[in-house]
Design a protein that fits this description.
This protein is an all-alpha fold. Helices cover 81% and strands 0% of the residues. The longest helix has 47 residues, at 31-77.
Length: 162
Protein backbone atom coordinates (compact mmCIF):
# COMPACT_ATOMS: atom_id res chain seq x y z
CA UNK A 1 0.00 0.00 0.00
CA UNK A 2 1.22 3.51 -0.80
CA UNK A 3 0.10 7.02 0.10
CA UNK A 4 -1.51 7.22 -3.33
CA UNK A 5 -3.93 4.43 -2.40
CA UNK A 6 -5.98 6.80 -0.27
CA UNK A 7 -6.07 9.82 -2.55
CA UNK A 8 -9.62 10.41 -3.63
CA UNK A 9 -9.66 10.74 -7.42
CA UNK A 10 -13.16 9.52 -8.27
CA UNK A 11 -12.74 10.06 -11.99
CA UNK A 12 -9.99 7.40 -12.04
CA UNK A 13 -11.58 4.90 -9.66
CA UNK A 14 -13.77 3.12 -12.22
CA UNK A 15 -10.70 2.17 -14.25
CA UNK A 16 -8.71 1.23 -11.15
CA UNK A 17 -11.31 -1.20 -9.79
CA UNK A 18 -12.75 -2.55 -13.07
CA UNK A 19 -10.97 -5.90 -12.81
CA UNK A 20 -11.95 -6.62 -9.20
CA UNK A 21 -15.40 -4.99 -9.09
CA UNK A 22 -16.90 -4.69 -12.58
CA UNK A 23 -20.43 -3.95 -11.37
CA UNK A 24 -19.22 -1.12 -9.16
CA UNK A 25 -17.01 0.20 -11.97
CA UNK A 26 -20.05 0.25 -14.26
CA UNK A 27 -21.94 2.40 -11.75
CA UNK A 28 -18.98 4.75 -11.33
CA UNK A 29 -18.70 5.20 -15.10
CA UNK A 30 -22.22 6.59 -15.34
CA UNK A 31 -22.46 10.29 -16.11
CA UNK A 32 -23.84 11.49 -12.75
CA UNK A 33 -20.90 9.94 -10.91
CA UNK A 34 -18.37 11.33 -13.35
CA UNK A 35 -19.83 14.81 -12.87
CA UNK A 36 -19.89 14.47 -9.09
CA UNK A 37 -16.33 13.19 -9.13
CA UNK A 38 -15.18 16.07 -11.31
CA UNK A 39 -16.91 18.58 -9.00
CA UNK A 40 -15.18 17.05 -5.99
CA UNK A 41 -11.78 17.04 -7.70
CA UNK A 42 -12.14 20.70 -8.72
CA UNK A 43 -13.19 21.70 -5.22
CA UNK A 44 -10.42 19.63 -3.66
CA UNK A 45 -7.79 21.14 -5.96
CA UNK A 46 -9.02 24.63 -5.09
CA UNK A 47 -8.90 23.85 -1.36
CA UNK A 48 -5.37 22.45 -1.64
CA UNK A 49 -4.21 25.58 -3.51
CA UNK A 50 -5.78 27.84 -0.91
CA UNK A 51 -4.17 25.81 1.87
CA UNK A 52 -0.79 26.13 0.20
CA UNK A 53 -1.18 29.90 -0.16
CA UNK A 54 -2.22 30.29 3.47
CA UNK A 55 0.61 28.13 4.79
CA UNK A 56 3.21 29.89 2.65
CA UNK A 57 2.08 33.35 3.80
CA UNK A 58 1.91 32.22 7.43
CA UNK A 59 5.43 30.79 7.19
CA UNK A 60 6.69 34.02 5.61
CA UNK A 61 5.02 36.12 8.30
CA UNK A 62 6.39 34.04 11.17
CA UNK A 63 9.81 33.75 9.55
CA UNK A 64 10.02 37.49 8.93
CA UNK A 65 9.16 38.28 12.52
CA UNK A 66 11.58 35.65 13.81
CA UNK A 67 14.46 36.93 11.70
CA UNK A 68 13.67 40.49 12.81
CA UNK A 69 13.85 39.42 16.44
CA UNK A 70 17.12 37.54 16.05
CA UNK A 71 18.87 40.28 14.07
CA UNK A 72 17.72 42.93 16.54
CA UNK A 73 18.96 40.85 19.48
CA UNK A 74 22.34 40.36 17.82
CA UNK A 75 22.62 44.09 17.05
CA UNK A 76 21.80 44.96 20.65
CA UNK A 77 24.28 42.40 21.94
CA UNK A 78 27.28 43.80 20.07
CA UNK A 79 30.02 45.23 22.21
CA UNK A 80 30.20 49.03 22.04
CA UNK A 81 34.02 48.75 22.34
CA UNK A 82 34.34 46.92 19.02
CA UNK A 83 35.49 49.17 16.18
CA UNK A 84 33.05 47.76 13.62
CA UNK A 85 29.97 47.92 15.84
CA UNK A 86 28.30 50.90 14.08
CA UNK A 87 28.69 49.41 10.58
CA UNK A 88 27.64 45.90 11.59
CA UNK A 89 24.74 47.27 13.65
CA UNK A 90 23.59 49.31 10.66
CA UNK A 91 23.56 46.22 8.41
CA UNK A 92 21.86 44.12 11.07
CA UNK A 93 19.27 46.85 11.53
CA UNK A 94 18.72 47.05 7.78
CA UNK A 95 18.28 43.27 7.60
CA UNK A 96 15.91 43.32 10.58
CA UNK A 97 13.86 46.09 8.98
CA UNK A 98 13.66 44.23 5.65
CA UNK A 99 12.61 41.00 7.39
CA UNK A 100 10.07 42.92 9.45
CA UNK A 101 8.61 44.52 6.33
CA UNK A 102 8.34 41.12 4.60
CA UNK A 103 6.68 39.59 7.66
CA UNK A 104 4.29 42.52 7.99
CA UNK A 105 3.32 42.40 4.32
CA UNK A 106 2.63 38.67 4.66
CA UNK A 107 0.49 39.30 7.76
CA UNK A 108 -1.45 42.02 5.94
CA UNK A 109 -2.01 39.70 2.99
CA UNK A 110 -3.24 36.98 5.36
CA UNK A 111 -5.65 39.30 7.14
CA UNK A 112 -6.88 41.43 4.26
CA UNK A 113 -7.26 38.47 1.93
CA UNK A 114 -9.05 36.38 4.57
CA UNK A 115 -6.82 33.50 3.51
CA UNK A 116 -7.72 31.22 6.43
CA UNK A 117 -11.47 31.73 5.97
CA UNK A 118 -11.21 31.16 2.23
CA UNK A 119 -9.19 27.99 2.75
CA UNK A 120 -11.71 26.67 5.28
CA UNK A 121 -14.66 27.50 3.01
CA UNK A 122 -12.99 25.77 0.06
CA UNK A 123 -12.20 22.73 2.21
CA UNK A 124 -15.81 22.60 3.43
CA UNK A 125 -17.08 22.75 -0.15
CA UNK A 126 -14.75 19.91 -1.16
CA UNK A 127 -15.87 17.78 1.78
CA UNK A 128 -19.52 18.47 0.98
CA UNK A 129 -18.93 17.31 -2.60
CA UNK A 130 -17.12 14.21 -1.31
CA UNK A 131 -20.01 13.30 0.96
CA UNK A 132 -22.54 13.90 -1.83
CA UNK A 133 -20.53 11.58 -4.09
CA UNK A 134 -20.63 8.72 -1.59
CA UNK A 135 -24.27 9.31 -0.70
CA UNK A 136 -25.22 9.15 -4.38
CA UNK A 137 -23.25 5.93 -4.71
CA UNK A 138 -25.10 4.31 -1.81
CA UNK A 139 -28.41 5.49 -3.25
CA UNK A 140 -27.51 3.95 -6.63
CA UNK A 141 -27.00 0.42 -5.30
CA UNK A 142 -29.97 -1.77 -6.27
CA UNK A 143 -31.58 -3.65 -3.41
CA UNK A 144 -30.99 -7.38 -3.30
CA UNK A 145 -27.45 -7.47 -4.71
CA UNK A 146 -25.24 -8.42 -1.75
CA UNK A 147 -22.05 -8.71 -3.85
CA UNK A 148 -22.40 -5.18 -5.21
CA UNK A 149 -23.36 -3.88 -1.78
CA UNK A 150 -20.21 -5.45 -0.33
CA UNK A 151 -18.10 -3.86 -3.07
CA UNK A 152 -19.67 -0.46 -2.44
CA UNK A 153 -19.12 -0.73 1.31
CA UNK A 154 -15.51 -1.77 0.75
CA UNK A 155 -15.06 1.19 -1.63
CA UNK A 156 -16.56 3.57 0.92
CA UNK A 157 -14.42 2.11 3.69
CA UNK A 158 -11.28 2.55 1.63
CA UNK A 159 -11.89 6.11 0.45
CA UNK A 160 -14.22 7.58 3.05
CA UNK A 161 -13.47 5.97 6.40
CA UNK A 162 -9.73 5.39 6.24
Amino acid sequence: MTDQDYLLSPTRHADDIAADAPALAAILRKQPFKKRGERFERADTDAIKRQSTFRWLALLAHGGMGVTTVLTAVALGLSPDWDHTPVVSWYLGLGAAAAGVCGTIALIMLRQGNKLRRWMEARAEAETERLAYFKALVDAVPHGDPVLLEQVLDYIYRYQVR
